Amino acid sequence: LGPQQRSVVMTGFYAPEESNMMDNFMLSMANSISFTPIRQLSGKTTPFASELAGMYLVFYEKTAGYSEKRELWLCRDKQFLFKSFRTVGSKTSRVAIQEQGNWKVEEDILQLFFATGAQMNYRLRKEQGRLMLNNQKSYQLKNTLCR
């Protein structure tokens, strides 16, 4: 039993004539195991969580070699609207997509939970006073959709 009450169970299947070799192998495996404590997410509100509430962000994200515009409205009631463009058909046509769902921030990760069941994460950080999402600059505009 390691830190945080975690354990490892190993099961080996072998022919009876190989029991000596398998015992030695399993013992050497067991001796080589080390435990690394995991960091628990606090679940507490972070400065990012309160700062993001009510924001309208525009940012660009690289997908399949293209830089794609994204728009994200983060409402104070923890709902969001996400607008992006998707390639359809023969990959020469693009359509605008609007999706919605709920959002939260854990530590420095913005988590978007879409109504479709999909989830998207963005790592947040500040650089020279500007909010970065996955190391991409974002532009904060006036949010007229939600508060």
Q: Could you characterize what this model shows?
A:
The chain is built from two helices and eight strands. It has an eight-stranded antiparallel barrel with strand order 1-2-3-4-5-6-7-8. The protein is elongated. The longest helix has 14 residues, at 19-32. Helices cover 14% and strands 45% of the residues. Strand 3 and strand 4 (93-106) form a beta hairpin. It is mainly beta and 147 residues long.
Brief summary:
The chain is mainly beta and 147 residues long. Helices cover 14% and strands 45% of the residues. It has helices spanning 19-32, 47-52; strands at 56-63, 66-74, 79-88, 93-106, 109-114, 119-127, 130-133, 136-141.
